[in-house]
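Data deposition worksheet. Section B asks for the primary sequence of the deposited chain exactly as it was used as input, without tags or linkers unless they were present during the calculation. Section C holds the resulting structure in token form. Section D is free text for depositor observations; keep each observation to a single sentence. Incomplete worksheets are returned to the depositor.
Section A, Depositor: J.P.
Section B:
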Amino acid sequence: MSMQSIFPLKPEALSLPPGTSESPSCQRRHTLPASEFRCLSPEDAVSVFEIEREAFISVSGTCPLYLDEVRHFLTLCPELSLGWFEEGCLVAFIIGSLWDKERLTQESLTLHRPGGRVAHLHVLAVHRTSRQQGKGSVLLWRYLQHLGSQPAVQRAVLMCEHALVPFYEKFGFQAVGPCAVTVGSLAFTELQCSLRGHTFLRRNSGC
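Section C:
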């Protein structure tokens, strides 16, 4: 899979004819922030799926979300997503939706429940060239702070394979037992996290 659409080549410097101003697109390119966190939009769906497909299919043979599902959630609840961009290119992301039950069910994989008080984290993925740099940890911490700023959201929930449980426990998640959701032969542990503590940290961190 070509990743050039994610990391464009650095252009060579070009001299413009006298009296010719740069195009608006060039001017925007020069003002891109070095690092930016923002909610995702449906226009980001292809970049999201390229990263997700490479990260998951090579390991488990399936994706948490396929392209249509990515677009679905980024249309219905973009405020429950967060992307990390470097010089305009997506390097890591989280996609979530609202859920309205105590535990996850098979329906929770594809549904967004407006009015729900639980944020279901569907997927966290990092571009292959940005892994082993702590980006997943930084993004998850910022995402939990982001959720803590939304009064209606009381807690976060996710499911993961057993080997990843210690990673999420570092951020305040607690295992609540085997998840009722299965994907093929894969089994998962369900974890939940209260967002009250993360709201406190957000208010006192200067973020």
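Section D:
The longest strand covers residues 89-99.
The longest helix spans residues 45-60.
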